[in-house]
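Design a sequence for this backbone.
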């Protein structure tokens, strides 16, 4: 959702409509192919993700199972409220203020990693502000950055553009978006996506 207040009800409604179309639509929406002359990225994958309620953590684990590498869960110094409405309100305020919430997590040295999978829930049309903190704090120049998110209807939203702005010297590959409520069923979509970006055999 990019405008208006994201409510559980609104997200569920979109989810029901979209899920009627099934996984085939999700696959058709993503042209996962590498461009001519492109090769699969080299180097060990690092999977960095933020997750408030566990959907993105589940998707991160699915990716980890398929590509190997290391996984880091990003935590903010001040955890977000468990209450949905309170979290929504706080996230909106942070986005409007251009906040950079402090992180409680350090990344390992990035030298050993060629590819960084970057996972997050869609919050108000883009990444949570903690991801902005992360991308400003660490240098992803020369890395292959692969976004993935879970959402309630807005897919990746503006997040890919925002990542591009924050990591202008990274190579970006096609991202992946899964509905948070049905993330456990995203396996086939994840397989097709990873094949398309040349990451299926990365381990
Ligand atoms: C603060 C907040 C803002 C959200 N904004 C959006 C949104 O703009 N668009 C959308 O599709 N889903 C939105 N959602 C729904 C989440 O993206 C979705 O539930 C996601 O799967 C949660 O991932 P997590 O369990 O990893 O935290 C929002 C949820 C929260 C808590």
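Sequence:
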């Amino acid at each position: 959702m990019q405008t208006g207040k994201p409510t559980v009800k609104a997200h569920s409604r979109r989810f029901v409509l979209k899920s009627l179309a099934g996984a085939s639509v999700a696959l058709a929406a993503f042209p996962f192919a590498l461009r001519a002359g492109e090769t699969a990225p080299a180097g060990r994958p690092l999977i960095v993700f933020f997750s408030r309620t566990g959907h993105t953590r589940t998707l991160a684990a699915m990716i980890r199972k398929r590509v190997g590498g290391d996984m880091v869960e990003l935590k903010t110094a001040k955890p977000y409220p468990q209450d949905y409405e309170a979290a929504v309100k706080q996230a909106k305020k942070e986005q409007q203020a251009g906040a950079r919430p402090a992180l409680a997590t350090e990344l390992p040295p990035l030298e050993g990693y060629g590819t960084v999978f970057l996972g997050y829930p869609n919050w108000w049309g883009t990444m949570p502000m903690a991801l902005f903190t992360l991308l400003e704090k660490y240098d992803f120049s020369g890395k292959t950055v692969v976004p993935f998110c879970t959402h309630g209807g807005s897919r990746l939203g503006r997040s890919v553009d925002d990542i591009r702005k924050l990591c202008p010297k990274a190579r970006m590959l096609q991202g992946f978006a899964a509905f948070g409520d049905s993330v456990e069923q995203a396996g086939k979509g994840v397989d097709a996506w990873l094949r398309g970006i040349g990451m299926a055999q990365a381990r």
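Strands lie at 44-49, 70-73, 113-121, 144-151, 171-172, 176-179.
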